[in-house]
Each structure stands twice: as C-alpha cells, then as structure tokens.
C-alpha cells in the first residue's frame, strides 16, 4: 500500500505533535506488517510554495475562530486559511479524500468546526477527530480511519 499522504497546518504545535506521533505509530505498524501504510506528512504554512497535488491525501486542520459561534451567527476562521488556499490551488481539491479535525471539546459545537466545514466544502468525509495533542489511543483510531478511507477510495478507483 502506498504511504498515506497528509497535509496539515499547526498553529500552536498540537497538530504537528499529533502528526509526528501518528507518523511514528504508522512506521511501527508498517514494520510489523508491510501491507499497512506509512505516512508521508507535509506541513503547510505561510512560507509554503504551492504545488499541484496529484496523489490522494488527507488534510489535518485545527479550529481557530474569531467572532460568531460558527453555527447560527457566523464564523470567522483565523490562522488556518492558508491550508484552505493550498487545497483550492489548481486541482488540489480533487485529490483530497478526507479531513481530520482537532480542537478543544470545551468549545462544544465549535469543536472541529473548521474540519467539518472543509469536509462539506470539498465534499469529502470528515474521517476522524482528536482533542488538542491527542492521546495514544487517538493515534490508533485515526490511523485505522485513514487506512479504511484510503482502501475505500482505492477500491472505488
């Protein structure tokens, strides 16, 4: 199986930390069973040169909002916009196969709202979520969700 491709944005380091741990987890799974994929992750930030994405990929996005509750009185996303611009670049949205969100459960309906909005905008599944930096069981759960979604996409060619 090809490596799972992940594009992510990390504002305070939580997403970066989770993706690093997830990548290490995937490497261990791959070492034990070569049929399980490793992870190839790329951080997107203001300095990233936009390029065409041709292989299927997932995006990992935290939620940062300024104003509104994101439900009934508007939403203004902060700091994660560059990832959306990257996905919108050329045909990159066509290769997106799923979204993983993170956030703080204390924000109730706003928890993972940016990821849910990306999933809706790009008509792809919201495949998994984790809180803040995640915990080891989140790595297992998210990895399994990515593998399942990747296999589903491959099966439907």
From TrEMBL:
It holds the Pfam family Flavodoxin_NdrI. It comes from the Bacteria. Gene3D superfamilies: 3.40.50.360. InterPro entries: Flavoprotein-like_sf, RNR_NrdI. PANTHER family: PROTEIN NRDI. This is Class Ib ribonucleoside-diphosphate reductase assembly flavoprotein NrdI. It comes from Levilactobacillus tongjiangensis. The lineage of its organism: Bacteria, Bacillati, Bacillota, Bacilli, Lactobacillales.
């Amino acid at each position: 199986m090809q490596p799972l491709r992940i594009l992510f944005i990390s504002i305070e380091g939580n997403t970066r930390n989770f993706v690093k741990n997830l990548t290490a987890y995937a490497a261990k799974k791959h070492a034990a069973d070569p049929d399980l994929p490793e992870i190839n992750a790329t951080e997107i930030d203001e300095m990233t040169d936009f390029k065409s994405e041709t292989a299927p990929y997932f995006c990992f996005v935290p939620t940062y909002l300024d104003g509104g509750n994101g439900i009934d009185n508007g939403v203004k996303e902060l700091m994660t916009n560059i990832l959306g611009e990257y996905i919108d670049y050329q045909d990159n949205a066509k290769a997106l196969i799923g979204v993983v969100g993170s956030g703080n459960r204390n924000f109730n309906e706003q928890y993972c709202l940016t990821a849910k909005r990306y999933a809706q905008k790009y008509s792809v599944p919201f495949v998994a979520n984790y809180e803040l930096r995640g915990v080891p069981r989140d790595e297992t759960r998210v990895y399994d969700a990515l593998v399942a979604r990747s296999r589903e996409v491959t099966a439907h060619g």
